[in-house]
Design a protein that fits this description.
With 290 residues, the chain is mainly α. It has helices at residues 18-24, 37-50, 94-105, 113-123, 127-137, 150-153, 178-193, 200-204, 214-228, 235-240, 243-260, 262-276, and strands at residues 3-6, 31-34, 61-65, 70-73.
Length: 290
C-alpha cells in the first residue's frame, strides 16, 4: 500500500521531521499525511545524494511538493521515478484530504461541533493560519475572492442606513445536534434554578460573545425563544432586575420538557425549525408538543 505525503504550505504538518517519516513508513498500511518543509528538503537532498540508487526504506512512498505542483514516487523496490509536474492518480483532492485524513491525523475527526471549534481556535492562534486551514477544509476558494478597495466598500454618507426597510432581525437557526442542545438545556436549567438571568454569555460559555461562533449563537437564541417565547435577556433586562420572576416560568417549562423527553422534544423542535425555513427570530413560535 502506498504512503502519500503532501506539502501543503501553511497547513499544520502531520509529519514534521525525517524521524516522523521513518516512523510512519514502518507500517505497511496506507497512509496520507501533510509534511513540513524540513521533510521536503530532506527528501530532495536524499534523492540527490543517492544518485539513482534504490532507497529501500522509501519503497512505495509518494511525495507531492509545492501544493501539488511537483511529484516524485518510489516503486516497490525503492527506486525513484523521474520527477514530474503531471498530476498522478494517487494525488488526493486537497480539500477532501483535509476534511477526512487530516482531521483524523490531528484527532479532530469525531469531535462535536462546539469542541471542534474550540480545539481549532486553540490550535491556530494566528488568523492567517485559520484562514488557510478553513480555505481547504470548507472549500472556500478564498484566493479567488476579490475584496473591493476601501473607497468602494463604504457607501456615501447620504446612502447609509436601512433605506429599503429590509429587516435586520436574525433568522432562526439549528445545529442539528441533540448533544449540543442537551448541554444548552442543562446549562439553562442550572442557571434558572439559581434564579440567575440566563444571558447569552452563560448559555454559550463565551464571556466575549464576539468570539462565539455565529451558528452557535443563532441556534441558542432560537432554542431559547422556542422554550420561553422570548429572547435571552440583554443587559437592559438584567439591569432591570427581578431575576426570580423571570426564571420561574422557565423552570416550569423545562420540567415539562423533561417529562416529555428532551430528545423527543428536540426532534420535534428541530423539524419545526427546518420547516420554518428563512423565518426571522422575532416571528418564530413553537408550541409545546402534546
Amino acid at each position: 500500500m502506498p504512503h502519500i505525503f503532501i506539502e501543503l504550505k501553511g497547513i499544520k504538518p502531520g509529519v514534521e521531521t525525517p524521524a516522523d517519516l521513518s516512523y510512519v513508513i514502518k507500517d505497511d498500511k496506507h497512509t496520507v499525511f501533510s509534511m513540513s518543509a524540513t521533510v521536503v528538503e530532506w527528501i530532495k537532498g536524499t534523492v540527490d545524494f543517492a544518485g539513482g540508487q534504490p532507497l529501500t526504506k522509501l519503497k512505495n512512498c509518494c511525495f507531492a511538493f509545492d501544493d501539488g505542483k511537483e511529484f516524485i514516487e518510489f516503486d516497490s523496490k525503492g527506486k525513484v521515478k523521474p520527477s514530474t509536474t503531471v498530476t498522478p492518480d494517487w494525488f488526493p483532492d486537497c480539500g477532501k484530504f483535509m476534511r477526512e485524513q487530516w482531521l483524523k491525523n490531528n484527532e479532530m475527526y469525531d469531535l462535536p461541533v462546539v469542541d471542534f471549534i474550540k480545539t481549532f481556535l486553540d490550535t491556530f492562534d494566528d488568523v492567517k493560519d485559520r484562514r488557510r486551514h478553513c480555505d481547504l477544509l470548507f472549500d472556500l476558494h478564498l484566493d479567488q475572492v476579490k475584496i473591493p478597495p476601501v473607497s468602494d466598500a463604504h457607501p456615501p454618507a447620504g446612502k447609509m442606513g436601512n433605506k429599503n426597510r429590509l429587516t435586520t432581525q436574525p433568522k432562526i437557526h439549528d445545529l442539528n445536534s441533540f448533544d449540543i442542545f442537551d448541554r444548552f438545556f442543562e446549562r439553562l436549567a442550572e442557571t434558572v434554578e439559581k434564579n440567575q438571568f440566563p444571558t447569552m454569555q452563560i448559555l454559550t460559555g463565551y464571556e466575549n460573545l464576539n468570539k462565539a461562533p455565529t451558528p452557535l449563537k443563532g441556534a441558542m437564541r432560537t432554542w431559547f425563544r422556542a422554550i420561553t417565547g422570548e429572547l435571552p435577556p440583554n443587559n437592559k433586562r438584567v439591569d432591570a432586575g427581578n431575576s426570580a420572576l423571570f426564571c420561574a416560568p422557565i423552570r416550569t417549562t423545562l420540567q415539562q420538557i423533561r417529562q416529555y423527553g428532551k430528545e423527543r422534544y428536540y426532534g420535534e423542535l428541530s423539524q419545526a425549525i427546518q420547516q420554518a425555513g428563512e423565518l426571522t427570530l422575532d416571528k418564530f413560535t413553537f408550541r409545546f408538543p402534546r
